Amino acid sequence: MALDIEFVRGQFPAFQEPSLQGQAFFENAGGSYTCSQVIDRLTRYYTQRKVQPYAPYEASRLAGAEMDEARQRLAAMMGIETDELSFGPSTTQNTYVLAQAFRQFLKPGEAIVVTNQDHEANTGPWRRLADEGIEVREWQIDPQTGHLDPAKLESLLDEKVRLVCFPHCSNVVGEINPVTEITALSHAAGAFVCVDGVSYAPHGVPNVGELGPDIYLFSAYKTYGPHQGLMVMRRELGELLPNQAHYFNADCLYKRFTPAGPDHAQVAASAGMADYIEALSDHHGGPSEGAAAKASFVHDLMRAHEVELLQPLLDAMKARNDLRLIGPSDAALRAPTVALALNRAAAPVAAQLAEHGIMAGGGDFYAVRALTELGIKPDEGVLRLSFTHYTSQEEVEQLIKALDLVL
């Protein structure tokens, strides 16, 4: 079944906003538009529930219930237990908290594996563990393609490695990494696994229970929601790591790695992400029951639409000899996050695109290590063109025409 793009766009107020008419949004990897379900819940919370939650009076009871609803429904869609999902101010902040927990957990002489394909959020905090005598081993990408080869990981794994950190999908390379395979390799070597899903989750909520990692992180504000970082922490690991929150929260898994109080309104509004996924499933005749089944159905709808729209863009870019397309040229192997190295500063080109109604970005996108390994000057950066399932064929055509004019 094809995605009903008109129905999809009808769920996002941005597409009806007069000030945005004629402009095509291609910087979704930096933050997506927000669906009306999230906006409605956020508005309701601020107008009807803006009190301290979990007290016995009605407004407070409802406030706490909405926060609990968000955790319950999103966890169910990801195939995990409710208390294995927690919320924090951002994925970067969540990762720093995790790194502090591992700082206390690991012993000098033990090792972790990080990549140079990651956004800095899932590599920088972990690398700082070297200050405590932890060995940091770098799993390196292919300098020509950006590919992260699982065979190279095997040579880094031994009995000293306790943690392997890698992205589900790089925010500049775009290639989708085989999470299940990498997780199995790491677990077989006795290591835990932390996956940065920020660049993947907007293209279909993953079933983390089936994928298998011990930690999975992504950002709600890039997945049609409010500015929150979502963190899956599987129970076995979560109960081993030292508590990072108030001592009286130590026995609550979803509070152990949230040192500060949560943003009540934004956590509650995150249930709107589940509302939206269910609305898409129901509209397209998806499963009648099962949160994970509905999320999986919508995931496949989104991916099929994105792959169809992405291939013409990739074909147009790989045919040019005045730029370098980073990552695979086969749309089925990647997310619709396309980085182009132009052999000149990318930010001015993004500004030129804006004159043609294209909203895009140029820079290093916090992926300095990846760009450097690929031989791209970080100060020049890349032109990044990123979209999601709500992007239309007409917008992709508008983008390709604009690129022909400015490149």
Q: Can you offer a commentary on this structure?
A:
The chain is of the alpha/beta class and about 400 residues long. The protein contains 15 helices and 13 strands. The protein has helices spanning about 5-10, 35-50, 60-75, 90-105, 125, 150-155, 180-190, 210, 235-240, 265-270, 270-285, 290-320, 345-355, 370-375, 395-405; strands at about 25, 85-90, 110-115, 135-140, 160-165, 190-195, 215-220, 230-235, 325, 335-340, 360, 360-365, 380-385. The strands form 3 sheets. Strands 2-8-7-6-5-3-4 form a 7-stranded mixed β-sheet, sandwiched between helices. Helix 7 (about 180-190) links the parallel strand 5 and strand 6 (about 190-195). The longest helix has 28 residues, at about 290-320. The protein is globular and about 60 Å long.
- End-to-end Cα distance, whole Å, is 36 Å
Question: Level of helix content?
Answer: 25-40%
Note the main sheet. Answer: 7 strands, mixed
Mean pLDDT: 97
Number of strand elements: 13
The number of helical elements comes to: 15
Order of helices and strands: HEHHEHEHEHEHEHEEHHHHEEHEEHEH
Describe the oligomeric state of these chains in a short phrase: single chain
What is the CA-based Rg, rounded? 21 Å
Given the helix and strand composition, which structural class is it? alpha/beta
Report the portion of residues in β strands.
Answer: 5-15%
- The global form is globular
